[in-house]
Amino acid sequence: MTRRPKKAIVRKPPPTYRDCISDHPERKNVDWQIAIAQHAAYCQTLIDLGLDLYQLPQLDEHPDSCFVEDTAIVYQNKALITRLARATRRGEEKEVADILQESFETKYVKEPATIEGGDVIHLSNHLIVGRTQRTDNRGISYLSDWFDVDVTIIDSPKVIHLKSHVTALSDDLLITTKEFSEHPAFDEFDIILVPDDEKYAANTLVIGRTVLMPKGYEKTTRLIQDLGFSIILLDTSEFEKCEGALTCLSIIY
Q1: What range does the domain containing 93 cover?
Q2: Burial environment of residue 156 by CB neighbours within 10 A (0 to 12, 13 to 18, 19 or more)
Q3: Which residues pair with 34 in a beta bridge?
Q4: Residue 4 has what pLDDT?
Q5: DSSP code of 80?
Q6: What's the predicted TM-score (pTM) here?
Q7: Quick check: 247 and 74 in contact, CB under 8 A?
Q8: DSSP secondary structure of 148-197
Q9: Is 2 inside any structural domain?
Q10: 3-class DSSP assignment, residue 96
Q11: 65-100 core/surface letters (b: 16 or more CB in 10 A; e: else)
Q12: What CA–CA distance (Å, rounded) separates 201 from 157?
């Protein structure tokens, strides 16, 4: 994996969070106050793991703005400021860009290309990117050109973000749903297969040898614990209702 991160960018869910973009069956039952509490626990966990946090102000005009991962891709010594696929989300990236420009050489993705951070899996020597509902070929070209790195493309046009289905625990170990477990691009990786009834647990956030996981997925938790990782379980119920997960809530670098 890439070097251990030192910083994270986060943003609280706004009061308008109930209007998030989501087809989840529980979307109408989103509880903003619970989301705020869950986000606070998430942020405290990052702090406890040694990260310095940039906490951006809430954006009432952007209900999905807590999902900051989508707004930028940071890799090695550069940052790519994305162009979000949904027009209603464009603008979320501005304050993120201001922070990243202080530390990184930065490039902006321009119209008509789209790419979102939730589609990009970071490894130490290359990137894996999903061609999905939110990321297109032109956006992927920005990725490979700007970072000058090998990029493996996973064609998955029916999914919103690749990292809802596949995340990396190390440079040679992936956790994935059955849908992607036998993809030829992953032949060189060891695979942890998420049980069919725990698909949401495929989205994990790794910091060193600690894995942040959503609470309530006991079979998947045991699979990762058996490999010697430390586990921190977090309640993400209100983010799941808005089709978000652990990686979505931060940009870590």
Answers
A1: 7-252
A2: buried
A3: none
A4: 82
A5: E
A6: 0.97
A7: no
A8: T-EEEEEE-TTSS-GGGTEEEEETTEEEE-HHHHT-GGGTTSEEEEPPGG
A9: no
A10: helix
A11: bbbbbbbbbbbeebbbbbbbbeeebbebbebbbebb
A12: 21
Q: Which residues are catalytic?
A: 161, 248
In a domain, 189, yes or no: yes
Number of domains composing the chain: 1
Could you tell me the CA-to-CA distances from 21 to 2, 43, 56, 72 in Å, in that order? 31, 23, 20, 19
Give the pair of three-digit tokens for residue 177.
């749903």
pLDDT digits (tens, 9 = 90+) for 224-243: 999 999 999 999 999 999 99
Half-sphere exposure of 244 (CA within 13 A, CB side): 30
Which of these, 10, 4, 61, 16, lies nearest to 38 by C-alpha position?
A: 10
The CATH code of the domain that includes 170 is 3.75.10.10
Tokens standing for residue 173: 């170990």
- DSSP assignment of 100-118, as one string? HTTTSEEEE--TT----GG
| 65-123 tens-digit pLDDT | 999 999 999 999 999 999 999 999 999 999 999 999 999 999 999 999 999 999 999 99
- Sign of the C-alpha dihedral computed for residues 245, 249, 250 and 251 taken in this order: positive
